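This part of the workshop introduces the protein records we will be handling. Each record describes a single protein and holds just a pair of labelled lines. Instead of coordinates, the fold is spelled out as a row of discrete tokens. To make this concrete, we reproduce a full record directly below:
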Amino acid sequence: MTPGKYFGDWRNWVAPAAIAGTLVVALFLAFLVVMVLEAMGDKANEIDDTRAMSAAQTALTSVRRRLSGTLEDNAVWREAFIALQSQNRKEWMWTNWGSISADYQLYDGVAVTDPEGRLIASYFKGTEFDAVAAFGDTFVRQARAAAEPDKPPITNVFKIHESVAIVGSRALQPDRNMPPGGRYNVVTMFKLLTPAMVDSVASDYFLPDLHLAVTRPPGELSLPLTSIDGDTLAYLAWPGRNLGTRLYDEVRPALTGALVALGILLATAVFAGYAELQSLRRLALAADREATRDPLSGLLNRKGMIRALQAHLGNARESAGLTLHLIDLDGFKAVNDTWGHLVGDELIGAVAARLVTCHPRLEFAARFGGDEFALASRPGTDPAEVAEAVLLALKQPFHVAGHTTEVGASVGYATHAPEMDTFELIRRADMALYGAKEAGRGQCIAFTPEMDRDREVVAELEEQLRETLDRGELSVAFQPVVSSENGAVAGVEALARWSPPQGPVSPDVFIPLAEKSGLIFQLGQIVLERSISFAKARPGIDIAVNVSPTQLCSPDFADSVAATLAAEAFDPRRLILEVTEGVLFDSPLQARRAIDALRAMGIRFALDDFGTGYASIGTLNHFTFDRLKLDRSLVQGLDSERGRALLNATVSLAEALGIPVIVEGVETPEQAGHLRQLGCQFMQGYYFGKPMSAEDFDSLPGRMARAG
């Protein structure tokens, strides 16, 4: 081919033209990328500044809301309302508000004024002070404006002691739904915007170098803090980060050569990240299922049931919600005693299979005890029809492990109503179940308002609990903890039990009620005193007592425990206080202070329910627990290879840290044998003994030694 023919044939130019065109397009795209990156840098600066401003506004709003929430809890309080009408109101205010302000995370000071804004008493950091003199006339105006009970908390920014504070006021009233009209005393709480608090906000909302300034700092971003009259009192200020400009300056020298490599890298990173995310999601779902499922039946466990109820009730829009049916099997214990726990376990699985298919309008099913189940039926379903379907399904004989057996059931149910929380629904269904069991086998009973007589359920329960504690009628049960080495009783766990006239109330209901109403300190003191009395009469065993986060974080908790031990002349080394990991994350400083003070006396600490939350190795090292109490869900997972591996890993972790292990929820000899081989030092569960009275416990040690 001659040169003329070559250049004259247009088809010969296709490849060079494509290459040249691709090069031109690549260069043009590179130019566009540079220009776009410059524009993006400027826009990134603007977006980051906007984000920072929004974060600062959100942080200030969060501080206001947190103070408003605390104020709401303290202002809508029947006990406080009554106390302020009494002769010793200042003593009450000092005890419940003034003294707490000395070292309290939620507020630094509190003031109480009459409806006209006249000061009754005020405290700042645990000492009395004049709030009107400190805040000025605008404080009186805010207090007077808040004296009406139908108003939400009023919060504003005030100047105080060369600093500023968030100040909230709310009418003090006995109940939340008070009729409009009338004027009440006012509770005012305030929180100083101290450097430490501003640093905490900066850390939480990603605002580096956030600080409080009297005037607007030039060259910095700032958010004005205005008073009730609109005057600027101070500024929250911070330097802009100029992230876009900085980033562009760093990548500009290598931008052209890195475009292609960056595209490949991004594609690879996206693919790898997506694959890793999917893997983590599968692991998270599996872990969540392990924590919320009963391994024996495959149904939800107690934790899973509560979570499911909260999700359903939180989304309920109708006035009548779903119905919770609690089911207790009749005759299950006889099956276990006659044919053994393996047959009993298989029967549990067969019962679960029938329950989930007994009615077409079920939301979920759960097993939260040895022979206790729960069903939730959808709104609009006839609950009596579901209860009858349960009884009918369980009437048919069961064929398990070569045996034929019959079991019945008692059913109690309650229907969700507006303004009813999860634990109240469980409590009502539990009361109905108790009534069904009292009426005889094979009964189904619905909760009725008569079960709570003529007052609101929560108010009556709180009053009943208060009266029970005042009369010293709260009971304490004791569940043995046995040594894996010889099966002998090495200690007991003290468990609060409450059985008012209308029927037993679950600790899951009355313990949160006691914490919310402030009765937890009196309840905890009763349990501690009776536990020490029990242990004194039975030398050689340790006594374990559960401590709520509210108790542990109280400034005088350690002194109270020390006084009780001294009064009873009890050896502190025999006392074990069990805490859950939640308090270690919510209030680590207060928890560490109390734990250190009590450990110095010789008291030991156990981390309860380990394996259900988020406690890390660092947490275990930091708080140096004396015992690790594994949650019953780890034992129930022994039926699966994954469950056994998880339990083995948990015990190995405890051994590596040198922490003795207590395993709770042991129900079968097979479980006990596996745990003994695994090296668990102590065991606890129905296999060794249910929670029992002191009298029943005295007949236990010999039998327990043989059982081990």
Remarks:
- Confidence is low (pLDDT under 50) at residues 1-12.
- The radius of gyration is 32 Å.
- The first strand starts at residue 109 and ends at 113.
